[in-house]
UniProtKB/TrEMBL annotation:
The gene is ALDH9A1. One of its GO terms (molecular function) is formaldehyde dehydrogenase (NAD+) activity. Its EC number is 1.2.1.19, 1.2.1.3, 1.2.1.46, 1.2.1.47. Homotetramer. Its main location: cytoplasm. Residues 1-31 are annotated as: Disordered. This is 4-trimethylaminobutyraldehyde dehydrogenase. It comes from Vombatus ursinus (Common wombat). It is an enzyme of class 1 (oxidoreductase). Keywords: Cytoplasm, NAD, Oxidoreductase. It is found in: Cytoplasm, Cytosol. The active site is at E254. It catalyses: imidazole-4-acetaldehyde + NAD(+) + H2O = imidazole-4-acetate + NADH + 2 H(+); pentanal + NAD(+) + H2O = pentanoate + NADH + 2 H(+); butanal + NAD(+) + H2O = butanoate + NADH + 2 H(+); (5-hydroxyindol-3-yl)acetaldehyde + NAD(+) + H2O = (5-hydroxyindol-3-yl)acetate + NADH + 2 H(+).
Length: 494
């Protein structure tokens, strides 16, 4: 497969175990190949009727799935993991074509996805309640039960991985799921739906509805939807929470961030430079947990800056399907303009562009309409600049000098976000002391942006609540039933 040649299989909705045209619509959307600017799919956004059909289909499948034992569910999820592993390169290629991230990175996203399925398949057989002895031989027990039909709504930066991070624990717990991807990236999640069917889930257990905000609202408002798990921006997260509150539906919110990365002068500087690049430039900087506020202790500011600029200038930008590319195009033209706008504003507010920050036009003529830019490092930054305060969601690193631990902690926490944070130091006491003070759901010591599926992922403050991955996520996709058993006579007060 080469860039510019991929044809999307239609239709893109998936219901009852097969691809379907939506029964009704609320407008149309176009999906692009960011590398070329080519429209690769035009599709109808699902309307209220299609959403209802998807919910009914999921309800029917849920009745079958919830009766299966954990071990039976586990075997099917393991089979889905096996198929994903087998089709890794094909799925990664589709992800790269629709999202723009390098094929090198997309392969890792697919690896994390099958690992996530394996992890929850492993937990499915061990979900159990507890037995509690009560006076007089009476006793109680608890049962962990599924919620029902869960809705997953995803962002465009990790389309396949987000769908798996939501569906793997949901299905392991015995739920059904309807997933709505971002209208920018509608393609790869349909492959996931087909894989679940091939692996043996009942038809309708995992359905896909395509569309934007209106379709998402129909899903959140549907009376038979038991839970909404959302990944996206803070403003949309607020709306989802409001809509879901009407039906008292629990929500998981995985929202944006503006995370701090603190680099102390006693760090291993080579690792700190690598860490700062991992924290800023994966997926063209379009990563929620990116450590975009890089605080560097003044003693090593010049040395660190010189090295990180040198390494950033070496990043190979271009055709994302080529194996040696490390940075592809941004998701679309308006997002590219938005990111460049932050850099312009930063310059006006006194930031200094140390490298990149402008458009990149690849030599290959078929890429000339793609959405490429050179990764940017901003120096001379101040905490109150817009580029330091707001989530840019592009390849833009801001470097901020600091002097003391107390000072940097106060500045690092001075944000409404709280998704992630990182610290580089060789002082083990300091590392843990700093992490204990950081107001963030995910903290890294001497690394950044690694996401093992065994570890919970999610934010503090306005970056959301609930978690994905790890054992704890089982609690977000199940509910606890308490059963109280009387072994004697009823002692009535009447
Ligand atoms: N914390 C995380 O795990 C995580 C992961 C990836 C992305 N993100 C965040 O996502 C954002 C970028 O993604 P985006 O631009 O797709 O976000 P977005 O909020 O614009 O859209 C996310 C999803 O919500 C849908 N949506 C929009 N309005 C809706 C409404 N009123 N009701 C229901 N659904 C609606 C969209 O169609 C899309 O599927 C960034 O802020 C990023 O930090 C967070
Ligand atoms: C599912 C991917 C999480 C990383 C944030 O963008």
């Amino acid at each position: 497969m080469s860039t510019g040649s991929f044809t999307v299989s239609q239709p893109l909705n998936y219901r009852g175990g097969k691809r379907v045209q939506p029964a009704d619509g609320s407008g149309t959307e176009e999906a692009y190949e960011p590398a070329t600017g080519r429209v690769i799919a035009t599709f109808q956004c699902s309307g209220e009727k299609e959403v209802d059909l998807a919910v009914q289909s999921a309800k029917a499948a849920f009745k079958i799935w919830r009766k299966k034992s954990g071990m039976e569910r586990s075997r099917i999820l393991l089979e889905a993991a096996r198929i994903i592993r087998e089709r890794r390169d094909e799925i990664a290629t589709v992800e790269t074509i629709n999202n723009g991230k390098s094929i090198f990175e997309a392969g890792f996203d697919i690896d994390i996805s099958w690992q996530c399925l394996e992890y929850y398949a492993g937990l499915a057989g061990s979900m159990a309640g507890e037995h509690v002895q009560l006076p007089g031989g009476s006793f109680g027990y608890t049962i962990r039960e599924p919620l029902g039909v869960c809705v997953g709504i995803g962002a465009w930066n990790y389309p396949f991985q987000i769908a798996v991070w939501k569906s793997a624990p949901a299905l392991a717990c015995g739920n059904a799921m309807i997933f709505k991807p971002s209208p920018f990236t509608p393609v790869s999640v349909v492959l996931l739906a087909e894989i679940y069917t091939e692996a043996g889930v009942p038809p309708g257990l995992f359905n896909v509805v395509q569309g934007g905000a209106a379709t998402g609202q129909f899903l959140c408002q549907h009376r038979d939807v038991a839970k909404v798990s959302f990944t996206g921006s803070v403003p949309t997260g607020k709306k989802i929470m409001e809509l879901s509150s009407q039906g008292i539906k629990p929500v998981t919110l995985e929202l944006g961030g503006k995370s701090p990365l603190i680099i102390f002068s006693d760090c291993d500087i080579e690792n700190a430079v690598k860490g700062a690049m991992m924290a800023n430039f994966l997926t063209q900087g379009e990563v929620c947990c990116n450590g975009t506020r890089v605080f560097v202790q003044r003693e090593i500011l010049d040395k660190f800056t010189e090295e990180v600029v040198k390494q950033t200038q070496k990043i190979k930008i271009g055709d994302p399907l080529l194996e040696n590319t490390r940075m592809g195009p941004l998701i679309n033209r308006s997002h590219l303009q938005r990111v460049l706008g932050f850099i312009e504003q930063g310059k006006k507010q006194g930031a200094k562009v140390l490298c990149g920050g402008d458009l990149y036009i690849p030599e290959d003529p078929k890429l000339k309409d793609g959405y490429y830019m050179k990764p940017c490092i901003l120096g001379n930054c101040k905490d109150d600049m817009t580029c330091v305060k707001e989530e840019i969601f592009g390849p833009v690193m801001s470097i901020l000098p600091f002097d003391t631990e107390t000072e940097v902690l106060e500045r690092a926490n001075d944000t409404t976000f709280g998704l992630a944070a990182g610290v580089f130091t060789k002082d083990i006491q300091r590392a843990h002391r700093v992490v204990a003070e950081l107001q963030a759901g995910v903290c890294y010591i001497n690394n950044y942006n690694v996401s093992p599926v065994e570890l919970p992922f999610g934010g503090y403050k306005m970056s959301g609540f609930g978690r994905e991955n790890g054992r704890v996520t089982i609690e977000y996709y199940s509910q606890l039933k308490t059963v109280c058993v009387e072994m004697g006579d009823v002692e009535s007060v009447f």
